[in-house]
TrEMBL record:
It comes from Marichromatium purpuratum 984. This is asparagine synthase (glutamine-hydrolyzing). GO terms for molecular function: asparagine synthase (glutamine-hydrolyzing) activity; ATP binding. The lineage of its organism: Bacteria, Pseudomonadati, Pseudomonadota, Gammaproteobacteria, Chromatiales. The keyword Hydrolase does not apply. CDD domains: Asn_synthase_B_C (cd01991), AsnB (cd00712). It catalyses: L-aspartate + L-glutamine + ATP + H2O = L-asparagine + L-glutamate + AMP + diphosphate + H(+). ATP binds at V288, S362, G363. Belongs to the asparagine synthetase family. L-glutamine binds at D99.
Amino acid sequence: MCGITGFILRAGVEPAPGTLERMIERLGHRGPDDSGLYREGAVGLAQSRLSIIGLETGHQPLLEPADGLALVANGEVYNYRELNAALGAAGRVMRTGSDSETILHAYAVHGLDALERLRGMYAFALHDRRRERLILARDRLGIKPLFYARLPDRVVFASELKALLALLPESPRVSAPALRQFLHHQFAAGEDTLIEGVRRVPPGEALVIDPELNLTHHRYWSARRVAPRDIGPEYASYELGERLDAAMREHMRADVPFGLFLSGGVDSAVLAALLHRHGAGRIHSFSVGYRGTRMADELDAAERVAAHFGFEHHRLELELDQVFGRIPHSIWAADELMRDYACLPTSILAEQASAELKVVFSGEGGDEIFGGYGRYRPPRLERWGKGLLRPGSGGFRTRGQWAGRWQRALYGPALATVEPPDRAPFVAAWQATPGDWSDLQRRQYTDLVTALPDNLLVKTDRMLMGFGVEGRVPFLDHRLVEFGLALPDTLKTRDGSGKWLLKRWAEPLLPPGHLSAPKRGFHVPVGDWLGGERAARVGELLARNDGIRTWFRPEALPALVAARRAGRGGGRELFGLLQFAIWHRLFIERPGLTPAPHEDPLDWIASD
């Protein structure tokens, strides 16, 4: 797990001295173990390394001079052993123990077709000197991030936005459509980011960049290729077990110890069972809850699972000020604005885990691929009504997070008139699905290409990498994703609940009664923190923030605060404004500023 960055220049252009060094310095938290630079003609590559596989020999950039190739990579190629055997038979000689070297040799043999052979989570940049091209590629599900910007004289790329900000020809500017999407849906989806001109490399794609800076998109995988299957529960259970075991065997490949984030829910409990089944031994597991709040947690359930499998369990019970002291650092770590409150405890878990480990397993993806969310099985009348009111996505992802009255009161002129519509990414995803898919499959797919890579996996990657920890998500092995998406609806949802097949398969492996407990999710008691005098103080400070004054109507803030204090809504809106104000200071006003892991968020709202 690492940070990568670099550029390709137009002919005749020279970078300012120290450009690569400044870029990779911004990514040091992703790779504290090592760093390396490469410069050949118009191309510069850099990597900061977190050593997981091939500890002593995996220094990057990796070079293959005979083929004119250079590589920097982030992530893991889990099937590197199998690929190396085939590549060795084809005459390739492996010089390191690193899984990233497999990418280099696979490309040398297969070209861009090598991408279809890789299994894992990765983002990489590969310079092919002979063909005069730079390739930027990202894994199928978007587990690992990769951003780029096409400037008049160069294309620059990086694992995080932070490394690109200093290279933009002008001060960073906010993208109004992306800001609207964040406010409405708690994240911005698609290729455009919150920084105007900076884009994401799409999951399952490679960008090929030539010396004239022309970009060609090469799509090597899409979940739309999955065909529905007619399969019964017995064979489906057998096949599920085979695929889970295959994914876990590969995901457990590491030259360092690993642990598990154990929430007490279904997905992390299944991972616990699989880790135990595959001989992980007495690994460290971590769970989190809160003191001084009315919100229930799953600490006891997580502890029972850990005891059942003999793990060394760490139970964290947090004070509210501990949790919300993470706000500035979590916003800095995330790069992209997202109102997923679970970023806060995840950040604390990552810091705790980093004292013991470099690798942690996590259960992201289980709901998306096995149909776990309640939003995947709405009543027919609700689905029909929502689809009628907001057409285009079958009644799915229709309602924004902000109440209409606060949009009208708080949005400034530039924000109120933005096009395209806020729901455009969800409508586009829904409309792209095959005609023989069910409503449930379309809902799964829409989340797989929007909320999963642009929200949930942002939390998993950036919160952990903020403390130099690699997150592994076995449910997002693409073979499992294809299997889950293809299943008949009846093997996903029954009797008003989801993940029927996964629960059926896992029940004999888990503590008795574990699967009968109600799903609570990874909640954060925001309402217990953002109220009373604190809400009033937040409102005062927001009025002194440059981003708020530019994009919103500060004169409407007192009414929002009053509603929040009186218990008449406004919580999501006030928290979203707080996040944007701090993000604006860190990424627009003062790029390069880094909060400590624990700070009073009120100190970071008002502009200097």
